[in-house]
Amino acid sequence: MTGPVDRRLAAPQQPSSTGGARAFRVLWTGQLFSLLGSSAAAFCLALTVYSETGDASALALVVGASSLSMIYLAPLAGAVGDHFPRRHVVCLGNAVLSVVSLLLAWQVGQFTAAEGDGFRTILLLVFLAGTAKAALSTTLSATVRELRSERDLSRINGLTSLVETIPTVSGPVIGAALYTTVAPAAVFAFEAVTFALAGALAATVRWPAAERPGRDRRLRPFAGARRGFRFILADPGFRTLQLVYAGVNFFAGLATAVVTVYVVTSSTAGTEEWNLAAFTVAGPVGLLLGALVVLTVGGRGSRAAVIVTALVLGALVGRLTPALVAVPVVWFVAQLVHQAGVQISNAHATAVWQERTPRHLQATVFGARRLLGQGPFPLAVILGGVLADRFFQDGAALPEAAGAIVPRLAEDGGGPGLLLALCALGQAALALLLAASPRVRETVRRP
């Protein structure tokens, strides 16, 4: 498969503006409901597992089981999503997730009643849910180009990002209310209802027919996944874009492992909890802010300049500044800027892939893209924890040496701050590499 051939396939006739727009609205309304249930259930599951086991490693296993399947099985899930009609994949995916949520409701009830029994079953169900979500999310990303004919896909991605972010703020509140007033199992029953509702809404609309030239009727997910990787690796611009985002996510993983430690150790006595709570809340608020910015002004300016600027500001303001300034208000604002930058750069980058990937291959390519771009993140989180414990503790050799140049790094929190600063500089350097590549500039240019 060659890049030019695929590019010619990427621009078939536009979908019906009326039918596609209505399907888009109904589909993403259902997605809003299902994400609300998922966010509430994720909060409840974390709280339940930790309260019953008192073990941070058990909590990490639950989070890891979901993220690993969503990232590392994404290429296979995307190939499956492209093989079948997207409407069927969305409906079936929501139905599977609804059943898994009901099983989790039952198992969580047994888990809390039996003092920890059934933890392996919970891990298995979480892994299965992550796999279904991988197929569903890659298919949903592919439907954007199939259902909407607007030229400015960046703004449309701002809208979908807004839908995906709102539940991260309100979902935990709903989860906490149900958890404390009813029972943990009720939260998963609520999640099951939201998935069923999303699937039912998707089944009510008539989607425009999608072109799938030369599709092999046999389901071959591994061959399909290889096709997605070949599409990306055959294009120099896409290769560089993926390399940069893989590096950015690697440094993001290292920073994720240490940022909580930094906030806690840099806080004055008695303020740790409040500072960490404010910093945590700033994350989803920043995502909402970034989505609103894209939705409002997504079509203006050079797309390459927007992507690079968002990455650089997110790194230097969002990560380097708080590492060098021990002021909680600065941390809060920096986290807002960082998460807004993530949202803005991702929305514009996703628009590039939607424009230049053949519609019948979009779920396949998006699955491969997720693995190539996000695959380093979980490994970097683990590595970051190891580095923070061994080389970037307060008083260790590296922070002490850096403190001779930047005195802040020799103070409380300076060790984790040094690792945070190095991650910020790494991300900024990769963004500048993106800006310097003429092939990337041509790839991200609006058609």
Automatic annotation (TrEMBL):
<feature type="transmembrane region" description="Helical">
    <location>
        <begin position="417"/>
        <end position="436"/>
    </location>
</feature>
<feature type="transmembrane region" description="Helical">
    <location>
        <begin position="185"/>
        <end position="209"/>
    </location>
</feature>
<dbReference type="Pfam" id="PF07690">
    <property type="entry name" value="MFS_1"/>
</dbReference>
<feature type="transmembrane region" description="Helical">
    <location>
        <begin position="304"/>
        <end position="334"/>
    </location>
</feature>
<feature type="transmembrane region" description="Helical">
    <location>
        <begin position="32"/>
        <end position="50"/>
    </location>
</feature>
<feature type="transmembrane region" description="Helical">
    <location>
        <begin position="89"/>
        <end position="109"/>
    </location>
</feature>
<keyword id="KW-1133">Transmembrane helix</keyword>
<keyword id="KW-0812">Transmembrane</keyword>
<comment type="similarity">
    <text>Belongs to the major facilitator superfamily. Drug:H(+) antiporter-3 (DHA3) (TC 2.A.1.21) family.</text>
</comment>
<keyword id="KW-1003">Cell membrane</keyword>
<feature type="transmembrane region" description="Helical">
    <location>
        <begin position="156"/>
        <end position="179"/>
    </location>
</feature>
<keyword id="KW-0813">Transport</keyword>
<dbReference type="InterPro" id="IPR011701">
    <property type="entry name" value="MFS"/>
</dbReference>
<dbReference type="InterPro" id="IPR020846">
    <property type="entry name" value="MFS_dom"/>
</dbReference>
<keyword id="KW-0472">Membrane</keyword>
<feature type="transmembrane region" description="Helical">
    <location>
        <begin position="243"/>
        <end position="264"/>
    </location>
</feature>
<feature type="domain" description="Major facilitator superfamily (MFS) profile">
    <location>
        <begin position="23"/>
        <end position="441"/>
    </location>
</feature>
<feature type="transmembrane region" description="Helical">
    <location>
        <begin position="56"/>
        <end position="77"/>
    </location>
</feature>
<feature type="transmembrane region" description="Helical">
    <location>
        <begin position="276"/>
        <end position="297"/>
    </location>
</feature>
<protein>
    <recommendedName>
        <fullName>Multidrug efflux pump Tap</fullName>
    </recommendedName>
</protein>
<feature type="transmembrane region" description="Helical">
    <location>
        <begin position="121"/>
        <end position="144"/>
    </location>
</feature>
<dbReference type="InterPro" id="IPR036259">
    <property type="entry name" value="MFS_trans_sf"/>
</dbReference>
